[in-house]
Structures are given as structure tokens and as C-alpha cells.
Amino acid sequence: MVSLLKKVIILGGYGNLGSAxxxxxxxxxxxxxYITGRNFKKAQNLIQxxxxxxxxxxxxxxxxxCLDRKGLIDAFQGKDLIINATLPETFFSIKExxxxxxxxxxxxxxxxxxxxxxxxFDQQIKEMGIEYRRSGSYFPGLPTLMxxxxxNDFSELEIANFYSLVRLNWKxxxxxxxxxxxxxxxxxxxxxxxxxxxxxxxxxxxxxxxQFPYYEKEISCMNLYFPELKNISDEYPQIGELGFYFNGxxxxxxxxxxxxxxxxxxxxxxxxxxxFANILFMVHKFISHSFYGTYLHLxxxxxxxxxxxxxxxxxYHNNSYFLPAASSFSIALEMLNDEINQPGLSYIGKNxxxxxxxENLSKLGITVIIL
Length: 371
Description:
Layout: E1 7-11, H1 16-28, E2 32-37, H2 40-51, E3 59-63, H3 69-76, E4 81-84, H4 91-101, E5 105-107, H5 112-119, H6 122-127, E6 131-134, H7 142-150, E7 156-167, H8 177-188, E8 194-196, E9 199-201, E10 207-210, E11 219-224, H9 227-235, E12 241-247, H10 251-266, H11 270-285, E13 293-304, E14 307-317, H12 322-336, E15 344-347, H13 354-364, E16 367-370
Parallel strand pairs: 1-2, 1-4, 2-3, 4-5, 5-6, 6-15, 7-12
Antiparallel strand pairs: 7-13, 8-9, 8-12, 10-11, 11-12, 13-14, 14-16
């Protein structure tokens, strides 16, 4: 049990990611956790599920609309840390409330629009002493920390590729329609790029075959680009090739529906977007897998003193939301402990200690394999 006696407010605290983070705080710290969302009953249900009681002095439900700037400012008063696990459309009201309240935030929502807008507020955030750590990928901070853990083992780094395999149990996962659309947006609005010869370019192969550790066969992974990867290439421009490859949908959905859906989303046909989101859910709900959970694997290749070298780091958990939740929880503890207090805008993982971070993940139950 980590003794902090701090107050943490989790926006979207009863959602799939938010509830996993809430549970980690409740079981591993003495913090008071404020569980917010528009549905007060869902927050109460989570409290009863976690504590076995209708009410608990460390779990406080708050009915809060994250589009309500004034409501956010009032809710932030007296808190030590804000964790944002909501949807991208709440960004502007949350950002304004954070700046006005002066409370540091761990922002787990990855959105191209949000990331671009935040840059113009960096100086203001820094001057107010706010630590604003933001997500730049589907796995907040993990790609950066995985690379930083191993990069110094190479004198010349030729290839650094990430491979992710996500198998959600759609039958047992509670998705709102907004969450489904946001999940779809994350992938359909994400560009396809790799870093090669010191430039971000379109890949020759938009899909690659990859054999995950302990998985029975090679599977097809599609290339995705996240802002966090650009941050990595800026810090380590000497990398020969850098890319991220993902498998999380059925082939039917990837090959037949992804392209037309991408066109629709670009034209903002919200009604049809909702239709595609529901198709996404139906296609996956009635299909079972040999395993559930998430793999995130980094494959590094290069040289040490002229000799070929290959290293890797793999992360796995059988609950697909637990891996990003454990990562977020570890970073949140770091912020609450003021271990690295650097006001201003930064990507999650940029300033953290990789050795301590992965030791914490292992203690929380994440399988960490370093070869």
C-alpha cells in the first residue's frame, strides 16, 4: 500500500479504462478517488463493486458533464491530480478548466486535434506551474519507455519496430455508443507512416506479417502512426527505421469496412459513423478467440561495436484495459510523489525512469519479458 493521502479526480472514472485505474488506486494506495461521469448510478455501482459497500470514504461519486467548464473548475478545486479518461470531444472544456484551476493533469486521451491544439498553450501551462502529461498513442507512454529502456545497449540502432496485438472480450466489455465511435476514430483517423532515413514517409507495406511471442502463428498487422512516435524520432533521430504495427480487428472489418469508413469519417457523416461503430461491435461480439488480452512488443536491431545485436521487450496482460491502466497508474504515482516535477507540456513517459517503471508494472501483474 502506497501512502500518499492525496486526492485524485478521474474523469470517466467508471469507464473501461477509468474503472481499471480507479481499482488500482483503491487497492494500492490510500488516496481518495473522485469517480466522475454523467451517470451518477454507474459511479455508485463501481464503488459497490470495488468496496462491497454502497458508500466508501475513499471512493467519492461525482455527477459531472466534462463539457461543462464551470462544473469542471468547481470539481478540480482541492484536488492533487486530474486523470482524464474521457472522450476527445471533452478536450477543450477540460483544457480550459485545467489552466484556470492550476492543477496538474495526466491526459490519457489520444486525439490528433487535441495534440495540435495543446502546443499553443505550452508556455502558459509552464508559467502556471502545471504539469500536463499527455498521451500520444493507444498505449500512453509505453512505446517511449520501452525504447528508452534498451536504446543505450546499441552503438548503432538500425530498426525499432513496435507490434501490438489486442484481443478485447467484446461480449463482456461495456461500450457506450460514444466510446465505440471514439475507438473507431482512433484508428480510422490515424495516418500510416514509418520513420526511415530521417523522414516520416508512407510505408511500402501497409501491413506486415509478425509472429508474436507465445502466439501460435504469424498474423497480419497494419501500420499506424501516433504522435508519440514523432517524439521518439525527434529524441533519437539516428534510428534507421521506426514504425508501429497493430492487429485488433477481424480481417472482415479491416479489409472490407476500414477504407469506406475512413472516407465517411473524413466527411463527418456522424449518423453513418454511428452505423459503422455498431457494425464494429457486432462483427466482434460474436467471435471468440484462443486468448484475450494485449501484447505490446518492441523489436530492436542494430550493432554494438560493429557486431549485429538484437534485443526485445514484450508486455502482456490478459485484460486488454489493464496494460494501459497499469501504465497510467504508475505515471500518476510518479506525478503525485513529485519524483519528476517538470511544469509544461510533455508526452507521457518522456521524463520517467524506465527501470523503475517496468519494475512497477511487473509488481502490478504485467508480464514483462526482456531479451
